[in-house]
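Assess this one:

_____
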Amino acid sequence: MNEHAPALRPDLTAAPAYDPASLTLYAPTPAAVELAAERGPVVWVPDAYGRMVPMAKHLAPPPMVRPETRDLTPLPLLDPVAQRFLGAGIGGGALSAGVGYGIGEVINAAAGLGTGTVMWIALAVLAWRTPVRSISGGRGSTVNIRKAVIKRNHFHG
């Protein structure tokens, strides 16, 4: 006897329990007939569980706009325009310091030349006006005459 138990079949008349993995919740009822022209466009969107479900296009959320790619090249520490201004300021300061130093050196040289020239002229005039005997050690031809007058009063009283 080859008897076997019949397979158990689920009762289809009972209300189905909530099953989040089931698509029967989204399926239209079998009795309703819907024409494609009446329904409108349908899009498939993911639900909370990651499954794709149909949804009317006018009810679907707007598509996500793809963000533009970012430029990830490293930026300079200082703005290039600021670097140019800084370089011009340092260069201009160095230039004006050098020009000021050079002008000062020219003025100092002119003052030194003037002072030296005046000193040599003064020495030449002094040498020209100095008597010869002071130059020759006192043996010159200059003769000094001293005349002394002595008066004595005598009182015999």
